[in-house]
Design brief:
The complex is a heterodimer of chains A (about 290) and B (about 290). Chain A has about 290 residues and is of the alpha+beta class. Chain A is about 55% helix and about 20% strand. In chain A, the strands form 3 sheets. In chain A, strands 6, 7, 8 and 9 form a 4-stranded antiparallel β-sheet that branches. Chain A has a 3-stranded antiparallel β-sheet with strand order 3-2-5, with helices on one face. Chain A has a two-stranded antiparallel sheet with strand order 1-4. Chain B is about 55% helix and about 20% strand. In chain B, strands 6, 7, 8 and 9 form a 4-stranded antiparallel β-sheet that branches. A 3-stranded antiparallel β-sheet of chain B has the order 3-2-5, with no helix packed on it. A two-stranded antiparallel ribbon of chain B has the order 1-4. Classes of the chains: A alpha+beta (about 290), B alpha+beta (about 290). Strand 10 of chain A pairs parallel with strand 10 of chain B, so a sheet runs across the interface.
Chain lengths: ~290, ~290
């Protein structure tokens, strides 16, 4: 075989394989494929599997992810029925429900989300305006209509979005807030409430502490007074007992007792600072004399 | 053998060996590993052929026919502040302000913990199922907070808010056939929005200060009670000691008197005289004495 012929055969084989390859395409689960003939969609495939089409460039295929996308809106201020304002940011879980329509009407995910944003914002604005502020924040479950507003927004957004081949699976809120001015007012009110609570606590604490200290002091005085009374009772009983002992003893000879007491008195009364003047004829002097 | 003839003989064998290695490599592209905490899903030409592949080494049809994905079986996400900070996607969730039912503003993160019950369903539901779960949980939290008071959200009653949010989020995720089961939705580190947070901290300090002042006063009371008991005991002891001494002194004197009396009765004058002299000698021995004639 001549080298030139060999080369031509190889090239032909490669081209054939490449063309053949463009005749097959795989659609994954969660995907849809749009087959277009010279750019015009002719067939939509939305089940997973291996499919056959005419070779390029007759037919081209574009696969689309039909699983949920989550788009999140910027926080936007909406006016309520009672002319208050609420700032809402929402998310929309959406998917391509009709790949053929989507390719023609929206084209790309970005353009679809731009449109979803417009539709959802306008529907939400209209629905929020029907309800007072209490529908978005209230401790009465019966008053709160936020979940219902979100459900209605999803439902009412569906129709215009169907024209894009898009369906809304879920619509929820990312945050519920207030515009700056109202936010400052609320935060100021909250701070004032906390400061008042703090002042109250400090005052109550001081009062409680003073009360407890006063009670402690008076309890101590009561205990001491009782103790003093008891101590006096013990002392006086003992003294009485002692007196009885003395009296019983001395009753045996009161005269001798008086004599002894007198002697005892001399001992106590006369000390080293006492001067005694006595007659040399006295009995006492004789005592001294004897002593010397 | 010249190098040329060697090459001539060996070339076909080399080609066969190379082809075999390439083929083996291609066949090996079907090997995949499912980790211990993962769920495997195998698709072949787009169709799911194995929805719940157990952890281990497995094989699927080689490229481009087969494909395997293995999402984590348990996912934890949070704002990184308190709660689920240790989760693999810590910080993925922003902290936001929410309007409470009593029209206050609370700032919080949302943490979420969940199990992938049906990995195939989770992979099929959304391009980014984790973002979907975060948003659904966040919305449920915003709605639940909108029904609660600020104090509810800041106290342990936040558990009720979390429970309501968890139930609501699970219902939405089930309706979307997400294959996900929430195990916890948490309101992470809620605090009053903006400057109110500092004021709240001051109020909390004041509560603690009040408790501290009371506790200090109670301690004073305990100390005073103990002191009073001590003083009372000292008074009592002193009184008893005095009493005992008075009685013992009296008894001692009575005994002494009794002894003297016995002696005295035997010879009154002599004893009387002796006692008088003894006393006087003692007394006059220490006093200054002046004599007058």
């Amino acid at each position: 075989m001549k080298p030139q012929r060999m080369l031509a055969l190889v090239i032909a084989a490669v081209v054939a394989v490449l063309l053949l390859k463009t005749c097959f395409f795989v659609v994954d689960r969660g995907e849809a494929a749009v087959v277009a003939e010279f750019g015009k969609p002719v067939r939509v495939v939305d089940g997973p599997g291996l499919y056959v089409k005419a070779p390029a460039p007759l037919q081209s295929v574009r696969t689309l992810d039909c699983r949920l996308n989550v788009w999140t809106s910027e926080p936007t201020e909406y006016v309520t029925a009672d002319t208050a304002s609420v700032v809402l940011s929402v998310y929309v879980a959406w998917r391509i429900s009709d790949a053929g329509t989507f390719v023609l009407a929206a084209g790309t995910k970005e353009r679809a989300e731009e449109r979803i944003g417009d539709v959802v914002t306008s529907v939400l604005g209209r629905l929020v305006a029907r309800h007072p502020m209490g529908a978005f924040a209230s401790t009465q479950p019966a008053d709160v209509l936020l979940p219902e507003v979100l459900r209605s927004t999803a439902r009412e957004s569906q129709e215009p979005l169907s024209k894009l081949g898009v369906s809304v699976a879920d619509l929820g809120v990312v945050r519920v807030g207030l515009p700056d001015g109202a936010r400052d007012v609320v935060i100021g009110r909250m701070a004032a409430g906390y400061d008042a609570r703090a002042a109250l606590e400090v005052a109550a604490g001081e009062e409680e502490a003073a009360r407890i200290r006063a009670a402690a002091d008076s309890e101590r005085q009561v205990v001491l007074a009782d103790a003093r009374g008891e101590s006096e009772r013990i002392r006086s009983e003992a003294d009485a007992a002692a007196m009885r002992i003395y009296a019983d003893a001395h009753a045996a000879d009161p005269e001798f007792y008086r004599f002894l007491r007198t002697l005892e008195s001399y001992r106590v009364v006369m000390n080293d600072r006492t001067s005694v003047v006595m007659s040399s004829r006295s009995e006492l002097f004789k005592l001294l004399d004897e002593k010397d | 053998m010249t190098p040329a003839t060697w090459a001539h003989q060996r070339a076909p064998r080399t080609a066969v060996a190379v082809a075999a290695v390439v083929l083996a490599g291609y066949a090996l592209s079907g090997v995949f590993v499912v980790g211990a905490d993962e769920r495997g899903v195998v698709t072949q030409l787009g169709r799911v052929v194995a929805a719940d592949v157990a952890p281990g080494v497995h094989y699927h049809a080689p490229w481009p026919f087969g494909r395997a994905e293995s999402p984590r079986a348990r996912i934890v996400e949070g704002s990184g502040a308190g709660g689920y900070a240790g989760g693999p996607a810590a910080g993925a969730v922003e902290r936001l302000e929410y309007l409470t039912g009593d029209r206050s503003l609370v700032e919080a993160g949302v943490g979420v913990k969940y199990e992938v019950r049906d990995a195939a369903a989770m992979l099929a539901v959304a391009g980014d199922a984790r973002e979907l779960v975060r948003r659904v949980a966040g919305s449920a939290v915003a709605e639940a907070v909108g029904l609660a008071t600020l104090d509810d959200v800041l106290s342990e009653r936040v558990a009720g808010v979390e429970e309501a949010a968890g139930a609501r989020a699970q219902a939405t995720l089930d309706a979307l056939h997400s294959g996900v089961r929430l195990t916890a939705v948490r309101v992470e580190e809620p605090r009053p929005a903006g400057a109110a947070s500092d004021a709240c901290a001051r109020a909390r300090d004041a509560v603690a200060g009040r408790r501290g002042a009371s506790a200090e006063a109670e301690a004073y009371r305990t100390r005073m009670a103990a002191l009073a008991r001590g003083e009372a005991a000292a008074l009592d002891a002193a009184a008893r000691e005095h009493g005992a001494r008075a009685v013992s002194d009296a008894t001692a004197e009575a005994t002494r008197f009794g002894a003297l009396l016995t002696e005295y009765r035997s010879d009154p004058d002599a004893v009387r005289d002796r006692l008088y002299r003894e006393t006087m000698s003692e007394v006059l021995g220490r006093v200054q004495t002046r004599l007058v004639d």
